[in-house]
Specification:
Structural class: alpha+beta
Strand content: 15-25%
Shape: globular
Strand order of the largest sheet: 15-30-31-32-29-28-25-26-27
Radius of gyration: 30 Å
Number of strands: 34
Helix content: 25-40%
Distance between the termini: 78 Å
């Protein structure tokens, strides 16, 4: 006799959160900001999320992903790229707008669990699977189990293989309800009692879909991963490259995809939106933009030239301030290339650009074969022992040949040894396809690191930069780099770069510090250690500006801050700007420079398309109407030429402007700062100081990769802490390179 199912009672409590006045939604529709505007928009965005949830979508904040295999692309390693779309409401000058864009996330490849594990660990047989690693990877993923087709969550793996893992089986023996308990293996239960054939699961752990104290074991081959489960671990270099490659869409293709996504969403059928009086116009918003003229550039021998379509080259041109490369050497960490030919070609190419490269010290320092399998730090130490033994004196520059282009484990220790311990400028390359273009790009970086300049803006050369030229002005670029997803214990790296040698705006230096993991606001801008000493970033940069700019203090400070969302704008002003002001006052109480604070955002979903052309918008495109903020000053700029995919503009928000830039002057300055990037011969998508800050944080973050994070890595001792979590300090750069553009 079958027992009736046990009924369960659930207590549901609905808690009142807040009342959102309908007037706020009406104001938002008309593009007016009110006290409750953000709450009103949040309510509308929640309606969009629920609408997508009812369609069975995976929800990632305001991005929605349908379970449609045509939107899937295999990235390798058991990871699938899933294309969906972002959808959110924004108030703009032309009223309430729906911001919709293509979005991509990573999901676990649906299908048999064993297939996922083989792909994820890149092995051919289940016998080669690392089951401890598999357990970590599978935990909390959802599977459908056979033969009952139930969906369950994985809580772990069995300790023993299927044919050895036992559990207690209770079987009713009579009509009185008595049960006998016996120990059976999972294998015997399915094969002998359930009469189900197991083809390969006998020798492998079972999937546990039960509770920790009441496990439920299912043979491996009966478990299939369900679709639309986010993969949140960091991607490998190859996976990331594959994702970027397969996510690219030309403007016309993207427009078509967005039109289909809007039609499929069918927002006009959503009763909650209708109740709010909202209907969606299916047409793209028409905006007016203007194209700024590319600034005139100056190369060597007084030659002026213009960039064409945001690009230029140094063919038949010399660098404006070429350096001499002397007292240098070449080290080869087992890179497979003709190093002598490379050196010869580099010297020849340098002469064509005006760089005098002397012959390197003696022989090329080759890594000894027995060191190739040694730990990275040991390999670097051994190479430096060779250098110290054989060179007559300390080199000023080292060219390092690496065996791998991406993620080479020697890179971090090598950079740390050179920049922090010895103060040697170094350039790492992994030569694959060497030609004159490649060598020119390498020389641009070497020249900038050694203190030279590759090109200048003509208006910079003639001191005709408007507001920036009229009074000593320092330009700061600020960024914080965080660890990969899942790395919650890796310190964040805060970097600030500053212009030097005013009135130049092409030359920078950097100061970098660690701070608590995942903390976005920089907390080391002002760090008084006594009544007279400040160990903060800003003092270091201001002193350098003073020394390099004919002993002038900056009257104007322009700050470009990267990587913060709109909800953090006030924190930038109240936390970071306050620290900068305090650092200035600490140096001189009577000193009151004027500030302009600008946020540069790349992580947004606004795109621009040309109405009568399938091409990207031209470089220099500026939009500051209709889709911009109804009250605050902001604008979008596409300074670069979008050669691949659809151009993503940078969204600049002006939070504070005490200096008093005119709108045109500020946009021209931002545009010009996209042309002073010394590493390349193209206009870049965001101002150079922000790019440099990102590079400095990324490069010095490599210093930490091989250090024991439980100890401080700083030669200065001590840790900075947030709460009770100690944060290891970065080693400070050697004084010989601290003012260099080492990050180029």
């Amino acid at each position: 006799m079958k027992r009736p199912p046990l009924s369960k009672k659930f207590k549901v409590e609905i808690i009142y959160a807040a009342q959102i006045p309908m007037q706020a939604i009406g104001d938002a529709l008309r593009g007016r900001e009110s006290e409750n505007s953000q709450e009103a928009l949040r309510v509308l965005d929640i309606i969009l999320r629920q609408h997508a949830a009812k369609q069975g979508c995976l929800l990632v904040r305001q991005s929605f992903f349908h379970n449609d295999p045509t939107n899937f692309t295999d990235l390798g390693g058991g990871v699938t790229g899933c294309r969906g779309f972002h959808s959110s409401f924004r108030t703009a000058q032309n009223g309430l707008s729906l911001n919709i864009d293509v979005s991509t996330t990573m999901i676990v490849k649906p299908g048999p669990v064993v297939d996922f594990l083989l792909a994820n660990q890149n092995v051919r047989s289940p016998y080669d699977v690392d089951w401890a690693k598999a357990k970590r990877m599978l935990k909390n993923l959802r599977v459908k189990t056979m033969p009952n087709n139930m969906e369950c969550k994985i809580t772990g793996l069995s300790e023993l293989p299927c044919k050895q893992q036992c559990f207690t089986l209770k079987q009713r023996t009579g009509t009185d309800g008595d049960c006998d308990a016996e120990e059976v293996t999972v294998y015997d239960y399915f094969v002998n009692l359930k009469k189900v054939e197991l083809r390969y699961s006998a020798d492998f752990p079972c999937i546990n879909v039960g509770r920790p104290k009441r496990p439920t074991y299912i043979p491996l081959e009966f478990c299939t991963l369900v679709s639309l489960q986010r993969y949140t671990k960091s991607l490998s270099t190859l996976q990331r490259a594959s994702l970027v490659e397969k996510s690219r869409q030309k403007p016309q293709e993207r427009m078509d995809v967005l039109n289909r996504a809007l039609k499929k969403s069918n927002y006009d059928a959503e009763p909650m939106l209708r109740a709010c009086g909202i209907s969606i116009n299916p047409n793209f918003t028409q905006v007016e933009g203007r194209v700024l003229q590319a600034p005139r550039l100056k190369a060597g021998n007084g030659e002026d030239f213009f960039a064409r379509n945001g690009r230029w080259n140094f063919n038949n041109k010399k660098l404006i301030q070429p350096m001499t490369v002397s007292k240098w050497a070449v080290v080869n960490f087992s890179a497979r290339c003709n190093a002598r030919q490379l050196v010869s070609d580099l010297i020849r190419c340098g002469q064509m650009k005006g760089i005098n490269i002397e012959q390197p010290f003696g022989e090329i320092f080759e890594e000894s074969p027995q060191m190739r399998r040694a730990p990275p730090v040991a390999r670097v130490d051994d190479m430096f022992e060779q250098i110290k033994t054989k060179l007559p004196g300390a080199p000023t520059f080292l060219l390092c040949l690496l065996p791998e282009r991406k993620n080479c484990d020697i890179y971090g220790p090598w950079k740390k040894k050179n920049l922090a311990e010895f103060g040697i400028v170094t350039q790492c390359i992994a030569p694959m396809k060497v030609n004159d273009q490649y060598l020119t790009n390498v020389l641009l970086k070497i020249n900038a690191k050694l203190g030279g300049m590759n090109s200048l803006l003509s208006i910079e050369h003639s001191h005709n930069l408007g507001v920036v030229s009229k009074a000593p002005t320092i330009i700061l670029g600020m960024d914080v780099s965080h660890g990969s997803p899942g790395q919650s214990d890796i310190p964040s790296i805060a970097a600030v770069v500053s212009s030097r040698q005013w009135p130049l705006i092409s030359k920078y230096r950097a100061s970098v510090r660690t701070q608590s993991p995942k903390v976005e606001m920089i907390d080391s801008l002002f760090k008084p250690v006594s009544d007279k000493d400040d160990d903060g970033i800003i003092r270091e940069l201001l002193v350098d500006f003073y020394v390099s700019s004919q002993k002038r203090k900056p009257d104007q400070i322009v700050i470009f801050r990267d990587g913060v969302s709109e909800s953090q704008f006030n924190q930038v002003l109240n936390i970071e700007l306050d620290q900068i002001i305090e650092a200035c006052k600490f140096l001189d109480e009577t000193w009151c420079p004027k500030f302009t604070v600008i946020i540069a955002q790349k992580n947004h979903h606004t795109k621009f398309f040309q109405t009568n052309s399938p091409d990207n918008v031209p470089p220099g495109t500026v939009v500051d109407n209709k889709v911009c903020h109804p009250r605050n000053y902001d604008f979008y700029m596409c300074a670069h030429a979008g050669m691949i995919g659809t151009t993503r503009p940078t969204h600049y928000h002006v939070l504070l402007d005490e200096i008093g830039f005119g709108a045109d002057d500020l946009q021209e300055l931002v545009h010009s700062l996209s042309y002073v990037y010394q590493r390349s011969t193209t206009a870049i998508s965001v101002v150079a100081p922000v790019c440099y800050a990102h590079l400095a944080a990324s490069q010095m973050g490599q210093f930490m990769k091989f250090d024991d994070l439980s100890e401080t890595s700083s030669g200065h001792g001590g840790v900075t802490s947030a709460g009770s979590v100690p944060v290891p300090e970065l080693p400070r750069l050697h004084e010989k390179v601290s003012s260099s553009m080492f990050f180029c």
